[in-house]
Amino acid sequence: MNPDVLYIQKQVKKLYASLSPAIQDGLADCNVSFLAHIRSGQFKAAYEDARVIYKFAKKPETELNTLFHNLLFAEDVITPDSVVFIHKESPYRSSLQVLGREVGFSVQEHEFTNSYWTKDYMISTGKEVVVPVKDSRTNYFTAGFMNQAKANRSLYYAPLQMDEHHRAKSNISSPSQWQAEELLAHSTFARKSVLEGGNFFCAINEQKERYHIVGENAISETMAYNNVDREQAIIYLAKDLSCSVEQILPIPQWTYHLDLQMAYLGKGQFIIHSFDQDKIDFGLSDVEIDGIRKTFEVLKDLFEINIIEATREILEKHGFEVTKVFGCLFYLTDETDPEQLKYVPYCKSSEGFDGALALMMNGIALDLGEKGRHFITARQDLPLFSEQFASSLRDLGVTRVHGADMLEAYDYSGDFLSTLLGIQGACNVSQVAAYMNGALRCQTSIVSKTQSTAFHPDVSKHRFFKHVESYDLAETETSEHPVECATSTSQFRNQ
Known about the structure:
Number of domains: 2
Number of strands: 18
Strand content: 15-25%
């Protein structure tokens, strides 16, 4: 049985045992029902049984929600029961920590790998953290699969006249490279699917059903990596994500990662960028406005129906609310130039940051109860554009949009110097993000606190000793097996 399930079972049984004999007698059937449901994996039914027990024990429902958080409620939204992981070397780390203190959410810095693209290799499915492991091969995407990708009307290769593929980055080539024992109570490895977190959303719809939103690029990559057809690739994804095939929602994409073209706000709400825009004057020059208008007209013809509208239909069909917004601002100087078109999936026109003006979509949502709903994205230096985006989110119940800065990029006089980040010529955060091909969401991962040793040491201890138990080394905590071993012993991980 899953260690999380065992822990929940133990906590509810403990609470039931603390009740008076008379109340226990009255709740006996409810307790039996809870045990049957939790052991058979019927978590929603088990939750309802446990609610009755908590009510009679006069315990707040918030405690029960925390207990069941990763099984039922965790998604790509920061809540009081979630923690945001960010790499120690991320240029957003200091600013995000300041926002955490000001707004009231938890931030945990880490150094699991050398890469600060945390989202790509630390994928939270709600129930667990999945770590993609891909060997060092870079030639798996053959000419045959390139042709197959170009024939897919839900991908950008053919419309943009591209002949080269955006291969997934090989962040982790072996499980032994994963160094998360001190901060994560448990993680599993994805070995078949070529999935990066930027191509993934964990979201719960209005009917409280959890879905895993996966980009077409991930499916295409997985097909090529394993030399299998589309159906088998989706089966591999479902297995690696520990969900059913029906929970996988393939989403068309014009960006190389989904989180550059869309964002999840929580409460079953998605926003997606649309190229169908009338107002483009945000204090820009005539050259920039003309360039954006021409670029958006071309991209509207290429993507608005086959990708953007198709995305809306898929998500709405599965119980999500979808709103089109004006979320990114960029332009090409020549909309017919293949060399510029191949950088459209990065929302720019060159390998550097040419044409990139603002990217609001790549952010993370917060639902903090009485503290309100928020959205954090990378800092933008176009106030009028930021305000129209924030206005769209206010209409959806998100009260405030925050900009995460790159605090280490400012000199003593307060001037922004991208050279302090090792990048030449960039004048602001947006240009640095464009140069790096990713912004705030790419460098963070939202995880249920039940998965964190720092926030739930009792859960960590329970998991550890269940692993020990499987080796017949010990059954309970003793002086020979102190609690601190749970964070320092790695040989019991993922066995």
